[in-house]
Amino acid sequence: MNMDGNITKEIELLLKGSGLSEGVVSTIQQWLDAGFRSKGRYGWAQLTLITCDSTGGVLEEGLPGAVAMELYALAADILDDIQDQDNNSLPWRKVPPAQAINLATCILVLSYQALSVLSNPRYFEEVSKVLNQIGLQACDGQFNEFLNDSKDKITFVEYFEVINKKSAGLMAGACKIGAILGGAEQTLVSELEQFGTCLGIMSQIKNDLDDFLNLETKSDFVKGRKTLPFVYLLNVLNEIEAEELKYLSTLASKGLAEFGPHEKEQLRELVVNEGTVHYCSAIHEMYKQRALDILKGMPIPEKRKEKLIQLVG
């Protein structure tokens, strides 16, 4: 059975033994499938298992942590989308928020339930601590992101503080869980955690850049979300251009009916003329190189590094 097949079987067993009603189980499975269509199949579980394998771990030991991470990330995505009022095409955005929050809570509990089959009590304790830390950091990051939304301008330091706690924290946590379940020494666990942080920052920068001008389906600019392109522009524009950007942001916040083709072109010109894409791409490349440097220094066989290198791209 391939990796996806093992993960699917483990999730099915977990849901079957959960005592949840048929309707809840069916909805969770549908929401998992919807997440796969938008982000790829079992991305979080696979990241955890690849990391586990790189340290010499075995599939059977890493699988519970991989399933836990997959479910945990789904719950986090659901809650994030509800709070951001984003990704309206996904199924959890098509039900009342209270219902979606209830099911996200259920999925979160299931992620911990997945760990209960770990044979080593120390692994259960350590992985649970990682999940707890991921959650606390994500909540802290989301809280500060909301605060940043109301500010006219934030620094690059403030931007990276938030994403380190949110998207980067999730990927760092997945890598750390895989390393723990692979039996890695603490030094290697820390290195793989740092590697995951780089992956998470790279992913967030790519999303920020892809979404910034996508006003029809993403709410980043409309809500004044301080993504990297926005933060960059706020910090490099001269006074006149900054006022233009502020005007466009205010207009966008009133709805797309107010923000027509002319305004979209104004925003696009600001992005292009100020080298926004080049800057974001350069920062992305910097973290890519940092990830590769971390891998280069890891005391694991080159053969086991291959899949990790592929993750960097």
UniProtKB/TrEMBL annotation:
InterPro entries assigned: ComQ, Isoprenoid_synthase_dom_sf, Polyprenyl_synt
GO biological process: isoprenoid biosynthetic process
Any one Gene Ontology molecular-function term assigned to this protein's record: metal ion binding
Nucleotide-binding listed as a keyword: no
Keywords: Magnesium, Metal-binding, Transferase
Xref: PANTHER family: ALL TRANS-POLYPRENYL-DIPHOSPHATE SYNTHASE PDSS1, GERANYLGERANYL PYROPHOSPHATE SYNTHASE
Family: Belongs to the FPP/GGPP synthase family.
Entry protein name: Geranylgeranyl pyrophosphate synthase
